[in-house]
């Protein structure tokens, strides 16, 4: 095991986590910490459980064993009301963008604001316009998802995820389906959000260019061993690892 960090400034702490579907164990013995302001990468080979881990972190699937802490609070040991309060502290950008096709971009972004705040319609409109401007979509409020590009849909999904000023943003394969230029723009936007607002970002990705460009820490999940085999900054991991599987993953077998 490499370069495991301590718990200072911990936003999320995973302790001895086991993920399973029935009797089938996906991963076990997961221990890592995500600190404030990090861009934390969840990576590993196909089918290793990256998206399943994300589901555990955002409160959609209960672990078979172990704990997930937000600050000092154990999520799965909390009352349902407290769990809901924790979940409102983060935003999620799903792989597809997950926008409602029958709603305009502004209506999509406004959903959680309208549901969880007492703001007036005028205040909601102003906040939606601000969030869309932050992701480079000013002027596109009245467009429908079918009328814009894939990269723009991802950015609209990000604006919706940011609607309630989350402490943590979760991304599931944000660059999937994007051309290299759009993917680079999304990476730059993630860095800008982290730098401007101090947002903690957790990203599931297998895209090498992205994970090297934005990752400040990471965990590598081994699908065969069904456990984590390394943590650390991806660029440093590539320099120091003696694990052939990790090196192959991080170089696509070209080194």
Helix-strand layout with pairing:
Elements: E1 10-21, E2 24-35, E3 39-44, H1 50-57, E4 65-70, E5 73-74, H2 80-87, E6 90-93, H3 105-116, H4 121-134, H5 150-161, E7 168-172, H6 180-197, E8 200-204, H7 208-214, E9 217-222, E10 227-231, H8 234-240, H9 244-251
Parallel strand pairs: 3-8, 3-9, 6-7, 7-8
Antiparallel strand pairs: 1-2, 1-4, 4-5, 9-10
What keyword list fits this structure?
9 helices, six-stranded mixed beta sheet, Rossmann fold, 255 residues, 10 strands, four-stranded antiparallel beta sheet, 25% strand, alpha/beta, disordered N terminus
Descriptive overview:
Helices cover 37% and strands 25% of the residues. The protein is of the alpha/beta class and 255 residues long. The protein has a domain at 10-89 and 167-251: P-loop containing nucleotide triphosphate hydrolases (Rossmann fold), CATH 3.40.50.300. Strand 7, helix 6 and strand 8 form a beta-alpha-beta unit. Helix 4 crosses helix 5 (150-161). 37% of the residues are buried.
């Amino acid at each position: 095991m490499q370069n495991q960090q301590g718990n200072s400034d911990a936003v999320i702490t995973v302790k001895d986590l086991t993920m399973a579907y029935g009797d089938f164990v996906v991963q076990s013995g997961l221990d890592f910490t995500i600190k404030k302001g990090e861009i934390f990468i969840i990576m590993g080979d196909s089918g290793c459980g990256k998206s399943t881990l994300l589901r555990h972190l955002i409160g959609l699937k209960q672990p078979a064993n172990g704990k997930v802490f937000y600050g000092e609070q154990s999520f799965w040991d909390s009352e349902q009301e407290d769990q809901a309060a924790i979940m409102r502290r983060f935003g999620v950008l799903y792989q597809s963008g997950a926008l409602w096709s029958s709603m305009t971009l502004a209506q999509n972004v406004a959903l959680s604001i309208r549901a969880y705040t007492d703001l007036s319609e005028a205040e909601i409109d102003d906040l939606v316009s601000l969030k869309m401007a932050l992701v480079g979509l000013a002027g596109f409020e009245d467009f429908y998802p079918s009328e814009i590009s894939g990269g723009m849909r991802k950015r609209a999904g990000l604006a919706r995820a940011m609607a309630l000023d989350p402490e943590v943003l979760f991304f599931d394969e944000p660059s999937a389906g994007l051309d290299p230029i759009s993917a680079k723009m999304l990476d730059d936007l993630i860095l800008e959000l982290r730098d401007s607002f101090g947002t903690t970002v957790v990203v599931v990705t297998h895209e090498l260019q992205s994970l090297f460009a934005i990752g400040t820490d990471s965990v590598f999940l081994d699908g065969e061993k069904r456990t984590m085999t390394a943590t650390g900054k991806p660029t440093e991991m590539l320099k120091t690892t003696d694990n052939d599987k990790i090196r192959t993953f991080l170089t696509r077998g070209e080194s």
